[in-house]
Every structure is written in structure tokens, then in C-alpha cells.
Amino acid sequence: MKSALISPLLAGLLLLTGCAQPAAQAGGGGGGTIKAINHTKWAINHFSVNGQSGIDIIGPFQGGGGGCCFSVPAR
């Protein structure tokens, strides 16, 4: 009788611990959003900064093209 009660409780506990979120990594310099302004008469179809992609397609003489979330090293 006890094992019939304990087994589902242990299984539930294992499932709940498997869903735990990892702790955020401390340190780092921060982050921000990549934004671009196109000063040319041609569209920019794709851009990136240090491997972090911005949103595609900025029309001629337009601004925007922001891409979310890049990280900056502490130093």
C-alpha cells in the first residue's frame, strides 16, 4: 500500500525537478538592441554586428531594422 502511494509521488517529484529553470548567469556587461539606419539609395536585405543578426530589409533612406538582444562583455 505504501509503495503504491510513494511511487507516484516520487515520479511527480522527478517531473517537477526536471522543469526547474536554470539560474541566470551572473556577470557580463549588459545587452541591448541592434538598430540600423540606411543612408543609401539601395535596400539592405540583411545585416549583423559581431555575428548577432539584425532584422532583415531596411528600405532606401529608412531607419529601423532593429534586432533584439545582443550581449556585451564586461570588459
TrEMBL record:
Signal as UniProt keyword: yes
Q: Which UniProt keywords apply?
A: Lipoprotein, Signal
Signal sequence residues = 1-26
**Origin, by domain of life?**
Bacteria
Does Signal count among this protein's keywords?
A: yes
UniProt-listed Pfam families: DUF3304
The record, for InterPro entries, names: DUF3304
Q: What is this protein called?
A: T6SS immunity phospholipase A1-binding lipoprotein Tli1-KP
> Which organism encodes this protein?
Klebsiella pneumoniae
Q: What is the lineage of its organism?
A: Bacteria, Pseudomonadati, Pseudomonadota, Gammaproteobacteria, Enterobacterales
